[in-house]
Amino acid sequence: MMNGLFQKLRTVLAIRKSPGQIIADGKGTRLQPRFNQPLVGSDSAGIADNKSKSWLLSILLSSLGVTTFIWGVRELKWLQSWELKAYDQMLLSRQEEKPDERIVLVTIDEGDKWPLSDETVNKLLVKLESYQPRVIGLDIYRPEQKNLAAGVKDKKNIIAICLMDSLGKKDILQPPNFDEEYVGFSNVIPDDQDNQILRRALLFATPAKGKCTTKYSFASVLAWNYFKKQNIEFNLKDTNNYKLGKTIFPALSPNSGSYKGIDTGGYQILLNYRNTRNIAQTFTFVEVLNGQVDSKLIKDRLVIIGTTASTIPPGGFYTPYSSASDQPSKMPAVFVHAHIASQIISAVLDGRPIIWYWSDWGEYLWVWGWAMVGSVLALRLRHPLVLVVVSGVTLSGLVGLCFFIFLKGGWVPVVPPALSLVITGLGVMVYTVYRTQQRTKYIFLEVEKQQEAIEQLNLLLKENSGIQDSHHHLSPITNAPTRLTGDLLLGGRYKIDKVLASGGFGCTYLAEDTQRPGNPICVVKQLMPARRDTKFLQVARRLFNTEAEILEVLGKHRQIPELLAYFEDNQEFYLVQEYIEGHTLNEELPPHSEVQKESFVIDMLKQILEVLAFVHEHRVIHRDIKPGNIIRSSVDNRLVLIDFGAVKMMQPPTSKETELVTVAIGTRGYAPPEQFAGHPRLSSDIYALGMIAIQAVTGVMPHQLQPNEETGTIMWRQWAEISEELAAILDKMVLYHFSDRYQSAAAVLQDLKLIQE
């Protein structure tokens, strides 16, 4: 009778979360709606969609919250230094480019009798002019030289420099005998937020009242004069889009790329350095004066003259290459101007990329996208170690993708999306673990109530059994169930369509939910208590409610039907459940079908193991894994594990209490020995699943297989033709002693993945 009572009160097909709540009064318990959310359709697709929507909502909310937090931190410039360092590293990691053959550098160092006399400078310019360069740029301050370029036939091919007030330096006058048209300022704008590293090029600026009155930079004027021969003109009608020929150089804004709130006075662009140790062919000014240079190497080229010694003005600048071991700590100014001029010329003539960047919205969506990736990984990969490994690979992919985009000229954020991915992943994992612990704790409490109710029912049944033995005239305690008809609206909303099954414990019906759009089909299970006296019903009600609440927690998994409602009516208990349209796994296995292929078995194992991993995570044992309790959904072909009426809470491993022997529930052939002895374990479910797989590959029913006389483990390999790897996994799943088997579903999944690699 005890076994029959458990079957009556604990046999459940779990379904969707209840659209009603339990209201208890003196007449019993009735159903009251919890919400009026519509459900479209008449099958399980709507419920499955709601599960997917809930999962998607978790991803969206968690990722959006972290992204907003990261964005706020970014707006405070707390990430700018990291992002600029990442930018520098990508510059350093690019392949080395060839020197720009259109440019020639003539360098002056400390050993060249500095300062050079006016006569020496003019002599150098005359010598260079004889080689017929296209343009000569003089990156040497010569404000006191009133006769600069004396002896040169055409001074229009020579560009001089001046300096505007900058960083505490006084302005320097341009050569007095040069028109402003042939003078460019040499000012640069380092990033003062990051150790004065030069990453930007200043092309135009409004001159302050001073000695340097030109509006254009030295490199810009050099490039324009170089283009004169090719009739390429610049256009600055749009003050934010400087155009040379067909090439546009978009101006930096205060928040361009990963910059935040920078001073973008004048017209600035990102300086796209050529990653090369030698920006161009280089000669010393002594070699030029002594005629040691082949004139063909200078003809029709842009020649820039400048100093390379750090002690000679204008000195050098820190650049992204300053951290490289094979580069000087500071780049001489003449090289910087050569890089800027080369960038302008190469972009126009060669289509070399101009560094671009997204708008704030584009970057926000980019960061949000990676936050969602972190959420998905954390929700799908519950094992912390696996999550760490996969997240590490994903981070590498993010960095690789950013670098690939950078090679195409795009500067997209690296640090913010990396942080959003990690923080979201860790946050969701921690929250998931917390929620799991809370649910498990809740289940533990419900199971404690359940055990108390079972003990009380046991005592009541024993008492009643003694009374019956003494008084033969008493009526039996088990009543036949009252079969419901289609005219009755159970709970005021469920219309019975047909009977699915019936027995001494009650009946199972297909019903329509008349209070939801489309009258969706559901399953109603009627469970009748063994006795009708008040005391017995009170205890039975407690047992029924705690069991249903446990099932409601388990039903969160998409491959476990969820509980829709549970209530009491006329001293009988009812479960309202999702209807899974499809067929049981019995129809796909021998003897109803042919022996299955290895690929089918692996897919079946993986799907059910994922469900068991979730169930076992809550320390719950199903105890009746068999083909008849696995449904193949006709909606999306997924396998759904049903009939959780035999669920039992596994006692915590640290519990010092003596484990109660439970009623033996299971199916012959699928249930392991310890389960029939009343001591089920988590590995008991793994055993049952292994037996299903063996049935699939052998065609032999589990109860027909014989055990090994020495080990007790069933013998099956002689009837199967599968790989040794899969056979070894199945062997370990069905070992006789529970401690020798796989101890977790995750461990089986891990070995299965190795087969497919």
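That was protein one. Protein two is written in the same sequence-then-structure order:
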Amino acid sequence: MPNRLANEKSLYLRQHADNPVDWYPWGEEAFRVAREQDKPILLSIGYSSCHWCHVMEHECFENPEIAKIQNELFVNIKVDREERPDLDELYMNALQAMTGSGGWPLNVFLTPDGKPFYGGTYFPPEDRGQLPAWPRVLVAVAQAYRERREEVERAADDLVQYLRQQTRPPLTPNSLREQFLDEAARNLVPHYDRVHGGFGDAPKFPSPFQLEFLLRTYRRAGAPRALEMVLQSLTAMARGGIHDQIGGGFHRYAVDEAWLVPHFEKMLYDNALLARLYTHAALASGASWCREVAEDTLTYLLREMRGSHGAFFSAQDADSEGGEGAYYVWTPEEIEAVLGPDEARLVCRFFGVTSRGNFEGKSILHIPEDPATVAAEFGLSLDELHERIRAARAKLYAARSQRPAPARDEKVIVAWNGLAIRAFAEAATAFDRPDYATVAAETAEFIRTHLWDGTTLRHVWEDGEARFPGFLDDYADLMNGLLSLYEATFDPSWVAWARKLADAVLDRFLDPEAGDFYDTPVDGERLIVRPKTFVDQGTPSGNGAAAEALLRLGTLLGERQYLDHATRVLERYAQIAVEHPIACGQLLVAMDFALGQPFEIAIVGDPADARTRALLRVVFSAYLPNRVVALRRPEDDLATTIVPQLADRTALDGMPTAYVCRQFVCQRPVTDPTELAVQLGVPVPEH
């Protein structure tokens, strides 16, 4: 008999619909029952592509005897963290305060009024090493609630008070100074893995915000070591098992420090962020392989993560028939069956496939040696090697597609689609790919049609229905996507929409006393604490993304209020971001923009005119992270009303013309691409 989750939209919740646990979705009904029966609440939070969430479900929540204990002692609530990131943030902070660590599945015990008093992550069905058995935990927690009620409630009240204080940390605002950026870059260095690239030990996450900040450090300070760190990290990830060598795209993280063995789930946000990072690295370094990885990742998103409606789905599972990673791993015999013995020998050598394997008797494909070494071993040129590998990849992909595929979570999340819009739009301008701009525009149009009512956003679209009020990162990430989309299309309607989003952020999310932003809107559900984030998770922090979006929009429009609000956020968190750059990369990216004296570039001309395109290539073929670009087509008066910096800009002698300003000082207008390159301090692109 299915439980109450059977009719939910969320794939993750429906995955638990046949559990013998009497699950409730989050809502008043569950809390009413808890109050009436005087039972504590078990709140269990996860997501559809989470491997250990599936493990605990199979071991514990599908076990009738364990479920009976849960049902007798608790009111049980299941939450999809991707539907309700506010609940996830709130109760994850509570768990970290209680235990010093966190993760998913997130299992937190609450009083009937929602206050947390105990929690953990994965628990096994029986004692296993240092992990206590889940049934033993359930009985002990329920007993404490019954027999030491006053102590439990006092601890819960103290924890709630601590969480409230965390939204208003006692920070002293600091005026922004360039030395903050230098200090933050220095503070990143001790975390850097000099052997394998990236930051920290196992498990190893891609850290796109920190690497983006290092790219900016290279641009700002001319620090070659910063670029070396980025390229070493991107090379190691691209060659590692974290990168799907056959289908493209990146898995969530690696369980080892060398990027070999991933947790196999694939998330939209990781791939959008990494495609954009590789795009920027291609511009900064001129490395063609960075462009190849960026385009390969975008191809993966188009092929496997995009719906026919034009928006992007959220995730692919780690597990499939045969267990975690079964879809992705190979034996030499399987490769030979697809390619034949001669080609299989080359491909197995290139991708490190052996009879012994590197993951449960099979091989995760990776590139363990420099391709030049393999090419020489087989008497091939590098071009010949890459051509044969490309052909083999296509055949292996076709064969792999016949395997039972991992489940795909087809919810459309606004914030993550905003990241995808930005990745496609910036690749469109960097690589002169108008087809990417079309993709970004179609995705934005889907959100405008289905998740925007003219004044407010919804957070998620599932099965034809837009649900939940939009959160801060929905607004901020979409704003950043729209501003990049404007630069790829010069359709001023995207700027007009970004402005409405910015005004909604100031109206609905601002903490007027602290000067920063809450995660939830002022008219959102009242929780025990209104959450607020400045630390990045897999996605950019809400305050960091909002600061960057407001800076970009304020610079483009010349609107002081947007710049002032962004600056106030950065000044509030400056010291903590500098001291903890591994946690606050997005804030540092925004700070670099604020301190970078961004170029304000206005171009008058028809984008279909080769002379206009030549000016645009100067701008877009260089890594210029701190700039905004506007364009007015001849006789286009609407553009000047939406983007004021285009007003009074004219074409000199009827020629497409570029105007470059910086800090309220403008250089003379130019029509020659070489002169524009000199003004911007960038090379003239090759034709």
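Residues 4-166 form a domain with the Glutaredoxin fold (CATH 3.40.30.10). Keep this in mind for the problem set.
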